[in-house]
UniProtKB/TrEMBL annotation:
UniProt source species: Pseudorhodobacter turbinis
Record lineage: Bacteria, Pseudomonadati, Pseudomonadota, Alphaproteobacteria, Rhodobacterales
UniProt cross-references to NCBIfam families, sorted A to Z: unchar_dom_1
Domain of life, per lineage: Bacteria
Keyword list, A-Z: Hydrolase
An annotated Gene Ontology molecular function: fatty acyl-CoA hydrolase activity
Protein's UniProt name: PaaI family thioesterase
SUPFAM superfamilies reported in the protein's UniProt record: Thioesterase/thiol ester dehydrase-isomerase
Length: 140
């Protein structure tokens, strides 16, 4: 199946969610060609030594969002992996606050793809983090 079909099956419960989603307290919320959203809520387990949401939580959530946006363009018989990503954290995220991570595909070619993503408050709409990625598309 294609990457889009795989994500649609995951969203519909026909395939299991990735294990990282449980660790991140995140759920795939929507899937469309070139676009995905996740809903996530940071908990105490996601804090750094000073009690703030760890930067790795933002990075992992963004990687999931823009990576899955790329995945929607991957045809049957191919797979992708992240080559690099960049994260900008724009403000501290309160524990227990639900966010929406939206990933959008910018380009998908024969061997590489690029995408960007944002993390915004589900209720306040404020931007908490953003990022970009480059992925490689490979034969299975």
């Amino acid at each position: 199946m294609s990457g889009l079909e795989f994500l649609q099956a995951t969203l519909e419960g026909r395939l299991p969610h990735a294990a990282i989603a449980t660790l991140m307290n995140a759920q795939l919320a929507s899937v469309a060609p070139g676009r995905v959203t996740f809903r996530a809520t940071p908990a105490f387990e996601h804090t750094n030594p000073v009690g703030a949401v760890h930067g790795g939580w933002y990075g992992t959530l963004l990687d999931s969002a823009f990576g899955c946006a790329v995945m929607t363009s991957v045809p049957k018989g191919k797979w992708y992996t992240t080559l690099e990503y960049k994260v900008n954290i724009t403000r501290a995220l309160p524990l227990g606050m639900e966010v929406i991570a939206e990933g959008i595909l910018d380009h998908s070619g024969r061997s590489t793809a690029t995408a960007h993503a944002t993390v915004k408050g589900a209720e306040d709409g404020k931007l908490y983090a953003s990022g970009t990625t480059t992925c490689i598309i490979l034969d299975r």
